[in-house]
C-alpha cells in the first residue's frame, strides 16, 4: 500500500513514548512503511549532538521525510494527513473535527514520575474523559470510525495500565474503547510492547 514516497519516511522513537506511539499508529493506519530509529530516552540519547540537530528541543518523536524534518506528534500527524490522505484522521464535519482537536490530558507523565501522584492525575483525567466522551463515543472515542482523538487516547491508556497500574474498572467507557483499539492491527502493532527497541522483559 505504501508508495515510493513513503519509503523515505524515518521515525525517531522510543518504545515507551506515548507521543511517538500516536505517530506509529497514524503511520500504520495510513499503510505507510517507515524506518524505525530507536532513541533510548533513559540513556538520554535524545540529548546527543546528532539528535539535537534534528530536534533542538530534545524530544521524540521526530519524522524525517526526505528534506523535511518534523518534531511534535501533532505537527507530524497533521503533515501525514495532508500528504497522505488515505484513511483520514479527521471526520468531515466541523463539530467532529473540533472534538478531535481537543487536548484531553496533560502529557509528559514519564516512567520517572512519582507513581502515586501520576496515578492520581491520570485518574482525574480519565474521569473527565468518561464524562466528555459519553455524548460522542461509539465503538471508538468520537464515533464508530478511528480518528485523531483515538491516536492520542490509546497510548495514554496503555501507559496508565503499563506504567502506573491504573485500575480501568473505574473507567468502563475508556476500557471498552481500549479493548476495541487492540483488535486493530494498526494500534496493536504500535503499542510499546511490540517495538524494535522494546526490552525483552517488556515485550508483549
TrEMBL record:
Residues 7-88 form the GST N-terminal domain. Pfam families: GST_C_2 (PF13410), GST_N (PF02798). InterPro entries: Glutathione-S-Trfase_C-like, Glutathione-S-Trfase_C_sf, Glutathione_S-Trfase, Glutathione_S-Trfase_N, GST_Zeta_N, Thioredoxin-like_sf. Residues 79-200 form the GST C-terminal domain. This is Glutathione S-transferase zeta class-like isoform X2. The gene is LOC113727722.
Amino acid at each position: 500500500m505504501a508508495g515510493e514516497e513513503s519509503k523515505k519516511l524515518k521515525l525517531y522513537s522510543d518504545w515507551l513514548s506515548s507521543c511517538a506511539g500516536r505517530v506509529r499508529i497514524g503511520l500504520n493506519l495510513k499503510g505507510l512503511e517507515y524506518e524505525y530509529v530507536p532513541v533510548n530516552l533513559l540513556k538520554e540519547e535524545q540529548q546527543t549532538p546528532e539528535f539535537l540537530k534534528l530536534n533542538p528541543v530534545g524530544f521524540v518523536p521526530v519524522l524525517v521525510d526526505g528534506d523535511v524534518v518534523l518534531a511534535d506528534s501533532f505537527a507530524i500527524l497533521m503533515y501525514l494527513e495532508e500528504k497522505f490522505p488515505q484513511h483520514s484522521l479527521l471526520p468531515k464535519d466541523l463539530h467532529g473535527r473540533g472534538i478531535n482537536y481537543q487536548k484531553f490530558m496533560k502529557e509528559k507523565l514519564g516512567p520517572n514520575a512519582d507513581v502515586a501522584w501520576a496515578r492520581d492525575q491520570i485518574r482525574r483525567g480519565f474521569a473527565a474523559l468518561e464524562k466528555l466522551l459519553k455524548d460522542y463515543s461509539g465503538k471508538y472515542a468520537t464515533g464508530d470510525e478511528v480518528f485523531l482523538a483515538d491516536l492520542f487516547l490509546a497510548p495514554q491508556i496503555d501507559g496508565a495500565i503499563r506504567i502506573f497500574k491504573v485500575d480501568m474498572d473505574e473507567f468502563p467507557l475508556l476500557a471498552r474503547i481500549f479493548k476495541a483499539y487492540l483488535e486493530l492491527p494498526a494500534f496493536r502493532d504500535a503499542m510499546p510492547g511490540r517495538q524494535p527497541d522494546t526490552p525483552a522483559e517488556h515485550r508483549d
